[in-house]
Amino acid sequence: MDGMSELVIETHELSKRFGRKLALDALTLRVPRGGVHAVVGSNGAGKSTLFRVLLGILSPTAGSSRILGEDSQTLTPETRGKIGLVHEEHTLPSWMTVQGLTNMQRSLYPRWKEGTYGEVLGHFQVLPEQKISQLSRGERAGLNLALALAQGPEVLILDEPTLGLDVVAKQAFLESLLFAGEGEECTVLYCSHQMDEIERVADNLIILERGSLVSMAPPEEFCRRVSGWVVDWTSPPPEVRAIPGFLQARDVDGQQQLMVLDQDEGFSECLEILGANAVLRLPIGLNQAVNAYLTRNHSSPNA
Questions:
Q1: H or E element: which one contains 120?
Q2: Domains assigned to the chain
Q3: Parts of the chain with a pLDDT under 50
Q4: Rounded to whole angstroms, how far apart are CA atoms 283 and 303?
Q5: Which of 77, 98, 253, 277 shows the greatest Cβ crowding within 10 Å of its Cβ?
Q6: Are strands 36-40 and 187-191 parallel, antiparallel or unpaired?
């Protein structure tokens, strides 16, 4: 590894303010080398701001950030060449042909991987002679990913890359990403609101809330922390402050569905003590777990 740091992303009390809005709030984050790290959070959580600071597009208001061992604000051309980026707009020069753009990119990156480029682009119906302006959104997304992966990046940042893609294009994109991750020394930061994508590709789940880090763990580990319960109360439900680990509640056909954090099987006994007549545990998916966690402060009818 040439003595390289095992951390590819490091931020220390990183803050970014836009007027009165605090987009990043003393964020301290350490992302290890390798794997796919999914960054999730509600709109306005600071995900895109974090990426822009890491890339040196924005300057922090306070704190610091490093990528591949260098300060984000003073990245050398050599280090920038080791960072790939695919964002939701998939903006490419519309007047160029696919072949012309590929030739230009191939000449710029000494680590260019022709096999990776061909394999990834093969998932999409893209012809070399086509102009970029003739490509569909899904085809542009595929070309963008192929170009980014072929440059042999050490870090690949994907900011909502499948937004607006149809089912077929999204499937091809994810399959290409999974293929490219096999045996590659590339660390992927993947931002998406689609939990089905996260469950499929992510090794690590990073949850941001109001510009701060609130959780960092493998998706399955985070999902185990959240449990769902259907409760039939003998009397009106207790105040939520009395329910350990309360995240979310909603009424369904006279029963209450509860989502709670960090509770084991003994939680059912706790509910019975609080007045539950019947208790049933529900299976919980990642989408439900993350949604309950992110809406926990304003999801209760009697909070």
A1: helix 114-121
A2: 7-217 (3.40.50.300), 222-294 (3.30.70)
A3: 1-3, 299-303
A4: 25
A5: 98
A6: parallel
